[in-house]
Amino acid sequence: MSIENKKNIFNSQNLLSFTFKRWKPLLVIGIIGMIGSTAVAYLLPVKYKSTVALFPSQNHNLSRGFLSQLSDETKDYLSFGEDNDAEQLLQVLKSDELMYDLEKKFNLLQYYKLDDKKHKYYMFKGYYNDLFSYDITQYESINITVYDRDPQMAANMANEAAHLADSLLQGIVKQKAIRAFKVVKNQYDSAIAVENKLEDSMSFYRKQGILYWEFQVKEYTKGYADALVKGNAQAASAIDDKLKVFRQYGKGFEVIYNELESTNKWLIIARQTYMQAKVNAEETVPSLYIIDKALPADKNTYPIRILVIIGGTIAVLFIALLVMLITARMKEAKRADEKA
């Protein structure tokens, strides 16, 4: 074989000619490859796909939605969530706690035949990462996708993952709310105790006849002056006796009165905060809204058998043609060496 022929052995014209000359063995190999690929396509494990589409709620502070005096859209507990809410929910969905809750719910170690394996939890995590996926879409929604050989099982696990995520997120929020409520309740109880103590002190002054210090002193002083002007010594003496009470207890009354007024203002704020914390601790709202529940698929997602058959047949033909070309090249090279 000449050097030029060696260089051109794989050009398109020679390749077509080479392939055409060997069409019979290639046809036989292609048929065998197609049969083998068909067998493989029907032996591959089938997987069905189920998907849940959901939106996170905007916030989990229920009391802010209707108890707060401030009203802005960020406090609407009926609104869909935004970036941060979706990211938080995604973290819960991808958490190990949710993964192991699913395992307990469906006994997945036994289902995947891993319960007798040495590193069963390590292997289970690999299965889980391959068969469960959680993704945020461009619309800030989240898709939960599950693959399984049983379409009903795939749907059940996808729906349960959404339910568990809701429960876990509510549990986290509830735990924080209960702790906050205990702190706020202590403050509220303290404010009530202070108010009761001041009210007890105030009752002493009321028994002395001091009800409205400033107004009463003003009126008694006026009455005392009028009595003196009119020369009514008896009336002036009676009024002076009443003024003695105010001179004796007036300063103490004024101190208690001012403290009680400040405490009442504090108690109004403490009561509002207490009511908000109580609602958050005792009531819950969904942390997510399910748009589409997972339903059993009526057609498997994997494998796509026609692609497996076509791809397998083409691969077999390509390998067979490559082997033929290499074999032919080696034979030509050997003949050239013998002639030389």
What's the short version?
This protein is of the alpha+beta class and 340 residues long.
**What gyration radius follows from the Cα positions, in whole Å?**
43 Å
The portion of residues assigned to helices is: over 70%
H/E topology pattern: HHHEHHHHHEEHHHEH
Strand order of the largest sheet: 2-3-1-4
Give the total of beta strands: 4
Mean of all residue-level pLDDT scores = 79
Sheet of most strands: 4 strands, antiparallel
Class based on secondary structure composition and strand pairing? alpha+beta
What does this structure look like?
The chain has 340 residues and is of the alpha+beta class. Among the domains are: 1-44 and 305-340, no CATH class; 185-282, no CATH class. Helix content is 70%, strand content 8%. A four-stranded antiparallel β-sheet has the order 2-3-1-4. Strand 2 (132-136) and strand 3 (142-148) form a beta hairpin. The chain starts with a helix and ends with a helix. Mean pLDDT is 79; it is low at 1-7 and 70-74.
